Automatic annotation (TrEMBL):
Gene3D superfamilies: Vaccinia Virus protein VP39. One of its GO terms (biological process) is methylation. The keyword Methyltransferase applies. Residues 52-139 form the Methyltransferase type domain. It comes from Luteipulveratus flavus. Keywords: Methyltransferase, Transferase. GO terms for molecular function: methyltransferase activity. This is Methyltransferase domain-containing protein.
Amino acid sequence: MTSYEELVAEAATVDVSGWDFSWLDGRASEERPSWGYQRLLRRRFASARSALDLQTGGAEVVAGAGPLPARFVATESWAPNLAVARRALGPLGGQVVLAPDEGPLPLADASFDLVTTRHPVVTPWAEAARVLAPGGTFFSQQVGPDSARELSEWFLGPWPPGPQARDPEVARARATGAGLDVLDLRLERLRMELLDIGAVVYILRKCPWWVPEFSVERYGDRLRALHDLIEVDGAFVAHSTRFLIEARRR
């Protein structure tokens, strides 16, 4: 049996750039939303002449949804992901540009038929609407409210009461305020299982917003306690939430 120290040491040093989660195969599982974002994305690529993917990460999702539209641009703000995305999209004819998550985007007004983004850190609604051509489509899968709450609370304690910023109705209001008409909005709650403490360390390094300023040293006591729980129960169970939103520029 692999020791606590070995599991943590491996997960603390493995590369976490990009949005490839294959390192977790056999160590964690998460239900997927019923709508199948990549499948729906492929359909929208097929009917678009130009598309923009915001906060593309390592571009794994869009590269797998090809073929890409004739003109395809992706944005990314984090340098390690930028290099990964360029390697993925360059051979497919896509361009990747450096741009802050909140905008502004270094792109012309009304220049895309389709704007997409999967799990954005923040959605720059006004900028997304600005670069969409009239009648163009915004299509996105986003992290919803209370996602991985059980995991965050294990380390940080109870969340404060009140509405969450990632409520899909907040997204609807912001999209509408930016000049987009919401056509579809769906929310699902999905089961996550973390099967060893290495998976916990890895996911908190890859998704640092769940436990800000996370480090093995800072949270050593809570990690050790969670390792002991997983050894007894076989897994730590949490729940993610995802919502799908599609909107059209007026």
